[in-house]
Records
---
Amino acid sequence: MRTEFIIWMLVFVRISGLLTVLPIFSAANFPRRVRIALGAVTALLITPTLNQTLPEVGTLWAIFSLLALELGIGLLLGFVARVVFFALEFAASVIASEMGLSFSADMDPFGESRTQAPGLILYLLATMLFFSLDLHHWMLETFRKSYDYAPFNGVHLSEPLLVEVIVRTSRIFVVGVQMAAPIIAISLIITLTFSILGRAIPQMNVFGESFAFRTLAGMMLLGLTINLLAQHIINALRRIPTEMLRVAQLLGGG
């Protein structure tokens, strides 16, 4: 009974670390009690399916070391899953800047910072797609499989793991620029157009007059390319389980 409780506690700590960083579940308006209860129930369901042997934990310090290790694994897996939403935040900031909406930031209901309208739109779109694609079910299966690659007290840091995390992090800027590319293009066209007008009509306030056109053209293009944005988000979301398993495999030395 003592061994089963310790295994449950280790699973609970890993899933709690995952939920602490995982998008949607880590939102500021997501109740902490619900998050803790969700982690406890998930650990209770997953623990009987694990074919894991508990390492030697003769002292209290050894138990705390294992708990800290499991928490770190959960945080790392959650960070890998959150990279997609980091890319969305970067894309939204670029879109808002190009549309002239940077000064109209409002409080983010899902976080503790300020965000622009494009950021909220992309976050809600990604959240809807996340559950529509049943990715919450796939992530539960991925979490259970992570113990096959990264068992208790069988993980270690390595250079391939560090390279993998850096590569995943660098994808934030690549995916973000790809999502914001249409808005960047139309903003460039408007800038060039008003630059030519400014040369032809020196009395014209090019900087002030271009703001309305940037916002209007950006809103129209954002509406026309929302399907393309959704496809980018879907492709990025579908890679989350595979990327999480890859990191778990590298944690286990695979």
---
Amino acid sequence: MDDETSDGKRGTSSIVQSSDGKRGTSSIVQSSDANRSIVNRSIVFTEKNFAPRTSHLARIRYLCPMITHEKITIAVDGFASCGKSTLAKDLAKSLQYTFIDSGAMYRAVTLYFLRQEVNIYDTEEVSKALEKISISFRHLEEGELAVTFLNDENVEREIRSKDVSENVSLVAAISKVRRFLVAQQQAMGKEKGIVMDGRDIGTVVFPDAELKLFITAQIDVRTQRRFDELQRKGIEMTRPQIEANLQERDRIDSTRKDSPLKKAEDAIEIDNSALNRAEQLELALSYVKRVTVERLNG
């Protein structure tokens, strides 16, 4: 069966099986379209629950009702264009949680700074600009994910532009900007039942999150995903430009002094280079199930 990949393409469903060839725990997720495998510690499904050819979407529909109604906080971190936002949105929709795109918040601040020509190296100027910024997420249509508003303006398209992408890591490295947005993000998460993605969610924003996921992917895969995303939005950038941009953002995000991008010690790492969208969601939901079951069992 074909499933949609995390980059919007179609892919071939792979088999989830344990390292001894049987379905059970301590599994290896293998993808038929790549000569590699990814070892993980997920709770996978037993033979009595699923027929051998059960689709991933069917497994996902089966798994969601099994997850307790007790709400948790899910932190999803990772590099740019590694599919973390796709996963976070899919998790929120499957669990009926609130999705908060922290990256969109940094992009909104970056857009405002660009429009107002704020000197990001002038601390006082940055502080005054932040006082004039209001960021919110609003649902334009029932059942759809919320979009980003900057000072009551829908900027969902504008914050994905080339100019914003090239400057967001520099803006995100500013301590005043990070403190300004982290405080807002923490306030949003007080009620639990949220999925938030970013680069310091599991380490800084929600260090006590019940589930932390760290998403990675190979640079060529990330480049293609970003290229396809921009093509769909009518934004022109070449693959070399995109790859250079991603590598520079990786460098800035990983080396900044304030809240650098890094995997939390208790985070579960998922390399989704060879996983399609349904496989990635199924794997993440199995971790949600494991956490909620462990909480119920004390």
